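Subject: Interface between my chains keeps coming out wrong

I've been trying for a while to get a sensible model of this assembly. When I model each chain on its own everything looks fine, but I need the whole thing in one frame so I can look at the contacts. Pasting all components below, labels as-is. Any help appreciated, I'm running out of ideas.
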Amino acid sequence: MNNLSDFGLIGLAVMGQNLVLNVESRGFQVSVYNRTGDATDAFVAAHADKKLVPTHTVAEFVQSLSKPRRVMLMVKAGAAVDAVIEQLIPLLDANDIVIDGGNSLFTDTERRDAWLTAKGFRFIGAGVSGGEEGARKGPSIMPGGPASSWEAMRPIFESIAAKVDGAPCVMHIGPGGAGHYVKMIHNGIEYGDMQLICEAYSLFKAAGMTADEMADVFDAWNEGDLHSYLIQITGKALRQRDPETGQPMVDLILDKAGQKGTGQWTLMNAADNAVVVSTINAAVEARVLSSMKALRVAASSQLSGPEATLEVDRQQLIAQVHDALYASKVLSYAQGLDLMRTMSDKKDWALDLGGIASIWRGGCIIRARFLNHITEAYRADPTLPHLMLAPFFKNLLNTNQQAWREVVALAASHGIPVPAFSASLSYFDSLRTERLSANLLQAQRDFFGAHTYERVDKPAGQWFHTAWPEVIE
Ligand code: 6PG
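Reply #2:
Try treating it as a single job with all components included. I did that and got this:
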């Protein structure tokens, strides 16, 4: 082994361990440190044949690295990241690089970037997606920070990232918090994708399909234009049997969804910027509603609704749900991209939306075949105002919308909640409607608050007020 390691990682939970093994497998020597030394020793002992250097104090860890030091943190997002940075600061030298690979809030990353830069160090806030398996075999990496830090980390990042058509699923996203921001949007989109799949599942269930029959459908879809990791794991999850009872595993899992916050952050950022992410919003709220299990159980026997049983041609339903899912998914990604474009303009990040779609093609949770079309759309027109106006997507939405409408109507008439399908459809219909009902809304605002309005028959920017009649109650 060399005297000094090429790379160091702090935080040996599963993601951290797997990233270390991934980096090491590309020919780098890696120093590791964990708050509890036993975990460090156990990990290194379990991989005795690897170029790993166990360290038991932060000082020993820092001294074991070649300069400029490259230190990656894989610790819980939040206070733990600051605590580790505090420990590192007195030990680092100018130009050393600290990389936060957790799911940190991008504004925390901006604060840490300013903090470390002021001290002469370099900071990278890197979104890392792909779960445990991705970390080991090749994640999608979204690093943000100064270009010089990216260049210093590039060889390692490119070697450990997933590859699609030979291209590594990593690129310099932008300065400051841009990397963690894009990872947050990735997660918001992930929430949308997962919810849309769950809505398809609830329709199939209402049509009386068994878990294995549904698994067949998802497997078949995974061979087509919906080919994606989440569709693939859905098929596998549906086929899984509980060893204890022999029943489908999904039937035994309580219908209360958890969430760690990145979806909610996406909504808060969208609200801050007045960008509509209604599909992602529906997905986050669906998780919240699912968590209100006791209220739902009580309400289910007190509030009536139609019979949630679909007596329909099954093959036709499957085909329609496919189209509804695809169209809804497109709008969900369009919303995420719209939010990224808005923030990119606001923060001068110069985000390359086509490039981002392309590094999401492998390694990450939302990896999917259709991302190629998003990359193509932005390559063809980098100033594309909205994804749904790109030729490929325009055509897809026009083709799929009949089935999409029928699915949403079918669900509504049978009392089956499809919040993400319907949010996507309403978003689509709102954006393709030339004249909405907001004329009446403006009249109401002017009526009670003299907020004024523009007129269709006068130049934009001229504001009018009407002396509305007095209300006598
Ligand atoms: C990824 C995932 C990962 C994590 C999610 C889970 O890209 O690898 O997004 O970061 O599994 O954050 O989030 P929830 O617990 O909120 O579903």
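Reply #3:
Confirming on my end. The pocket of 6-phosphogluconic acid is lined by residues 103, 129-131, 187, 190, 258-260, 262-263, 364-365 (CB under 6 Å).
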